[in-house]
Write a structure and sequence with these properties.
This protein is α/β, with parallel strands linked by helices. The chain folds into 2 domains: 132 residues, Enolase-like, N-terminal domain (Enolase-like, domain 1), CATH 3.30.390.10; 223 residues, TIM Barrel, CATH 3.20.20.120. Strands 5-6-7-8-9-10-11 form a 7-stranded parallel β-sheet. A 4-stranded antiparallel β-sheet has the order 3-2-1-13, sandwiched between helices. It has a two-stranded antiparallel sheet with strand order 4-12. Helix 5 links the parallel strand 5 and strand 6. Helix 2 packs antiparallel against helix 3, helix 4 runs parallel beside helix 11 and helix 9 packs parallel to helix 10. The radius of gyration is 20 Å and the shape is globular. The structure holds 2-succinylbenzoate and magnesium ion.
């Protein structure tokens, strides 16, 4: 096949409740929906997951859209390929810019799975020679709350809905007492924290307090580009560390494993440049017996469908950061928003490709965008 044209639809969705981390405070989620069309007449969807500002990773919506238009599109001229993996390899000549590459690559996985008349979940499972699961238990990542009471209420609400694991965002030492309080109130909860790089090693005493709370893991306590200090920290704590912001590809995971910087990886297909790289990381983690689980980036239904396909691989046993659509948005871009089923489970789409369709409103908006010819 050959990619013939691409169009980009920037979308801003209001968040039901603001999402505050040590890096950002989001009231809306801006993404870009990417539609890729091939010479065979197939078309696929991807989602550009960069944030509006370079607080979580260096890419932004604006830089990544420009990267697609000015660097990725020209690379696709006359590029013939049969498998999405070949496209991934082809795009690897572009340094970094993982989310821009992932958006286009995901759309190609979508249309490739459609061409096989299989769900994306089935295609990914086939790559690893396993069977995809149809329903998967998921968790919630809760942004920083104005008070401990509001936090406790939120946790109770999500537990009542059935969510299987809670992640608390912490923005520094001040919130450790709050985590202690939560643990007291919910002694058996599958609980973890994500510091989004808010700590330094000088705050070891505070991190030792977290270590006493029987947390499933501590995500990204230290600086985004640091593996050595994470290794020092991991040596001094019983709780597993998990890396998120450090990981842009397989080499970073290998660095973390070799230096013993962490015992778990939060895997986000957008952050590592797409599903091909994701599968390589999954296989590596399996071989190294390091925990790998599916993270999230407040995706709309399109990105969420890709995450669910990935998370359907049986190796993902830890409940991911993939909540139901109504935990984020009152109006999603897809026709059938993802709903939580019994036991805090989401159902993996089983239609061909990503298995989601844009609503009439977003189909209309997409149709108004001009195609960029390849
Ligand atoms: O650090 O995992 C993170 C959202 C945006 C940016 C970074 C992170 C997150 C989350 C949200 O934790 C997870 C979700 O999508 O529900
Ligand atoms: Mg994180």
């Amino acid at each position: 096949m050959q990619i013939k044209k691409i169009r980009l639809l920037p979308v801003t969705l209001p968040l039901i409740s603001s999402f505050k981390t040590s890096e950002d405070n989001l009231n809306t989620r801006e993404v870009t929906l990417v539609q890729v069309s091939t010479t065979t007449g197939l078309s696929g969807l991807g989602e550009l997951e960069a944030f509006a500002h370079p607080t979580y990773t260096a890419e932004t919506q604006a830089t990544a859209r420009q990267m697609i238009q000015q660097e990725i599109v020209p690379l696709l001229t006359d590029f013939q390929f049969a498998l999405p993996e070949e496209l991934s390899q082809h795009l690897a000549v572009i340094q970094g810019n993982q989310m821009a590459k992932a958006a286009v690559e995901t759309a190609v996985w979508d249309l490739y799975a459609q061409s096989q008349q299989k769900s994306l979940a089935a295609v990914l499972a086939q790559r690893l020679q396993v069977r995809p699961r149809r329903q998967i238990a998921v968790g919630v990542s809760i942004g920083q709350q104005p008070s401990v009471d509001q936090l406790l209420q939120k946790i109770q609400l999500y537990l009542n809905q059935g969510y299987q694991r809670i992640k608390l965002k912490i923005t520094g030492v001040a919130e450790i007492a709050m985590v202690e309080h939560v643990r007291q109130q919910f002694p058996k909860l599958n609980l973890m924290v994500d510091a989004n790089s808010a700590f330094t090693l000088t705050e070891l005493p505070a991190l030792r307090r977290l270590d006493k709370l029987n947390l499933a893991m501590i995500e990204q306590p230290l600086a985004t580009d640091d593996f050595v200090q994470h290794a020092h920290l991991q040596k001094q704590l019983t709780t597993s560390l998990c890396l998120d912001e450090n990981i842009f590809g397989l080499a970073d995971v290998a660095t973390a494993v070799t230096l013993k910087s962490a015992r778990a990886i939060n895997l986000k297909l957008a952050r590592v440049g797409g599903l091909t790289n994701t599968l390589a990381i999954v296989q590596y983690c399996q071989k190294q017996r390091i925990e790998v689980w599916c993270g999230g980036m407040l995706e709309t239904g399109v990105g969420r469908a890709a995450n669910l396909a990935l998370d359907s691989l049986p190796l993902f046993t830890f409940p991911g950061d993939i909540s139901a659509s109504d935990r984020y948005f009152s109006e999603d871009v897809i026709q059938k928003p993802f709903e939580l089923a019994q036991g805090g489970r989401l159902t993996v789409p089983d239609q061909a490709g990503l298995g989601v369709n844009l609503t009439a409103k977003y189909l209309g908006k997409m149709a108004e965008q001009t195609w960029i010819g390849v």
